[in-house]
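Saturday, quiet lab. Running sequence design on the structure tokens for the scaffold JK sent over.
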């Protein structure tokens, strides 16, 4: 089911069918609270009142022309100006700002710089999301380049990739913000662990490297088994709760959010908004068969 949904997440034909169905919207809104920057701002304010930090993602990926890349950049600029004074983070996918176009590395770097400049001017930070493994090296190269001028630029590493332990060693340097997630794309066995036990074991090994290193680990998971392990690794490394943070996706697990709040752990939610929700939404369905059942039931019940 996971493979089929991940394949569907990149199918323009299935995308058309799903997007045209108005019954899908209420299910989508569980994971994506709105389409406008004002929607994102309203949710951000409410989360911040509860002591929860945010990273906001303007949805979009794999754009096919320069105009779309420019629109995405301007959307981030408008969002950051609207949020001026809020110490937020924005998450950016390089494929949404031109990385996969001809001469894409230069375009994506220029665009990421522009977003980073505006972010720095309003006191916000930028994290560069990680996409499929064909983009890993090029994405990390751009992160390294951005960090020369914007040292707070966050990187994302995916524990399902066999290379990631080595990437953790290289990136766990002073001040380096690193989000560790399991990975959300369909990847071949040649580069990625396929079964959950192997991915989880890799996650723990990678997290240990990050916790023992000099950077700032961002523990991005909803896995209840990994959370106490993360805390234990942080304690062993002599880290206080301010020296790392947990991250979750908006709408996935409110019970776990309350658990973090009650324990005074630092928590940041990844808050997506925009009209280009299809790929993101399909990856969330793929992560959990129960989401697909919920989705199908809600369609059938109307
Ligand atoms: C803040 C953040 C940023 C991310 N950024 C990236 C990125 O840049 N690149 C990338 O490839 N991936 C990214 N991801 C997604 C990540 O790679 C995983 O696909 C996703 O987080 C599910 O993995 P898990 O760690 O929750 O563990 P899993 O083993 O997948 O899930 C553990 C438990 O969490 C719950 N759960 C997980 N997913 C869902 C869901 N969709 N709906 C309901 N319950 C669920 C279930 O109870 C499940 O049993 C990000 C995730 C987070 C939290």
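Result came back. Writing it out in full:
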């Amino acid at each position: 089911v996971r493979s089929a949904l991940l394949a569907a997440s990149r199918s323009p034909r299935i995308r058309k069918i799903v997007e045209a169905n108005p019954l899908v919207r209420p299910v989508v809104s569980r994971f994506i609270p709105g389409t406008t920057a004002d929607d994102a701002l309203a949710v951000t304010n409410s989360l911040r009142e509860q002591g929860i930090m945010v990273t906001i993602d303007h949805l979009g990926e794999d754009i096919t022309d320069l105009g779309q890349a420019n629109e995405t950049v301007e959307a981030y600029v408008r969002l950051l100006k609207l949020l001026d004074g809020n110490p937020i983070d924005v998450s950016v996918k390089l494929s949404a700002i031109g990385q996969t176009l001809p001469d894409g590395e230069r375009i994506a770097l220029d665009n990421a710089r522009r977003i980073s400049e505006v972010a720095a001017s309003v006191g916000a930070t930028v994290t560069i999301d990680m996409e499929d493994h064909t983009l890993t090296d090029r994405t990390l190269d751009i992160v390294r380049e951005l960090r020369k001028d914007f040292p707070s630029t966050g990187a994302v590493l995916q524990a399902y990739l066999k290379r990631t332990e080595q990437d953790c060693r290289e990136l766990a340097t002073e001040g380096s913000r690193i989000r560790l997630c399991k990975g959300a794309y369909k990847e071949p066995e040649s580069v990625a662990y396929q079964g959950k036990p192997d991915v989880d074991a890799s996650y723990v090994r990678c997290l240990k490297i990050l916790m023992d290193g000099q950077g700032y680990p961002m523990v991005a998971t909803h896995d209840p088994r990994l959370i106490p392990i993360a805390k234990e690794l942080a304690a062993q490394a002599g880290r206080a709760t301010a020296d790392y943070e947990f991250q979750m996706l908006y709408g996935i697990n409110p019970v776990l959010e309350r658990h973090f709040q009650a324990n005074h752990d630092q928590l940041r939610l990844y808050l997506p908004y925009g009209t280009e929700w299809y790929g993101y939404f399909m990856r969330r369905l793929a992560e959990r068969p129960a989401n697909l059942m919920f989705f199908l039931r809600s369609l059938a019940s109307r």
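Notes for JK: The chain has a mean pLDDT of 94. The longest strand covers residues 267-273. Ask whether to fix the surface positions before the next round.
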